[in-house]
Amino acid sequence: MIKSPRDPKEAKVLIRLECGILVCMFTMQLSVLVLTFVVHSCWVKEYKGLEVEREEMTKKRSRKMARVQEESMENVTKLAEARTKELDEKMKNKYGQWTKTDFEG
């Protein structure tokens, strides 16, 4: 543009205009880059917060599951004891009478 057949003042104005536009474009790109970094850092903080919440929920869930398993084992033990007692009572009632008659006879 400097060696153009235009008026030198007009060429200087066009060069300044072009430089101004380039500077504006550079600052806009730089601001977009900075904004991108800011948004990314906010997302990372939010994700870490969500990760901590997820770990806490996992711990709570595992504690609840452990408690439920303990209760289940206790219930199974109680049920087994009750069935054993029922079976013993049935055996005493059923075979205890025959044993008495055998000894008596």
UniProtKB/TrEMBL annotation:
<keyword id="KW-0472">Membrane</keyword>
<keyword id="KW-1133">Transmembrane helix</keyword>
<protein>
    <submittedName>
        <fullName>Uncharacterized protein</fullName>
    </submittedName>
</protein>
<keyword id="KW-0812">Transmembrane</keyword>
<feature type="transmembrane region" description="Helical">
    <location>
        <begin position="20"/>
        <end position="44"/>
    </location>
</feature>
